Amino acid sequence: MRKLKLEELKRLSVEDFRTSEKLPVCIVLDNIRSLHNVGSVFRTADAFRAEKIFLTGITGTPPHREIHKTALGATESVSWHYEERPETAVATLKQAGYTVVVAEQTDCSVSLHQFAPAPAQKIALVLGNEIHGVSEAVISLADVAVEIPQLGTKHSLNVSVCAGIILWELVRKLKFAGPV
């Protein structure tokens, strides 16, 4: 076994990424405080070829040094849009036919492993503030709340970790092939 060199990974160029088939998922960041979390979500969105990121409320926007530090250039490949109110972004996506999925613990949450999207279903994945979670205004617009099972003493995961876990599950469940 040997570690592959970067040129052996056959990654897409930024130009090829922009025109490639995307996972039918838009990510909505609902008032994310940490610019490092924003950058990490950009990088994860690039890795799984998400359609777009909606940055809302107090969520920082590129270009910013702290976002760039963790995004490692993904702000150039992943399409993004800023919207002041998260519920406006969610309502727009809902009207465009996206199923609104909030990552939140609610009285109606389903475990992520039980969430079964239809093939090619368009999903708007909403990730909430590091302290307060997804806003009540957005939860009221949601079609489903999913939560990641946790076995320890903490009741939440870092928002960027949550993004990675959920996006990977969506790649698997939507059977998104993309080039490997």
Short description:
The protein is of the alpha/beta class and 180 residues long. Helix content is 33%, strand content 21%. It has a 7-stranded parallel sheet, sandwiched between helices.
Question: How would you characterize the overall build of this protein?
Answer:
The chain has a single domain, classed as Alpha/beta knot, CATH 3.40.1280.10. The chain is α/β, with parallel strands linked by helices. Helices cover 33% and strands 21% of the residues. A 7-stranded parallel β-sheet has the order 3-2-1-6-4-7-5, sandwiched between helices. α2 links the parallel β1 and β2. The chain is globular and about 50 Å long.
Layout of helices and strands, plus pairs?
Blueprint: H1 14-19, E1 23-30, H2 35-47, E2 50-56, H3 65-71, H4 74-77, E3 79-83, H5 86-95, E4 99-103, E5 110-111, E6 123-128, H6 136-139, E7 144-147, H7 159-173
Parallel strand pairs: 1-2, 1-6, 2-3, 4-6, 4-7, 5-7
Helix pairs in contact: 2-3, 2-7
Descriptors:
180 residues; alpha/beta; Alpha/beta knot; seven-stranded parallel sheet; 7 helices; 7 strands; 33% helix; globular
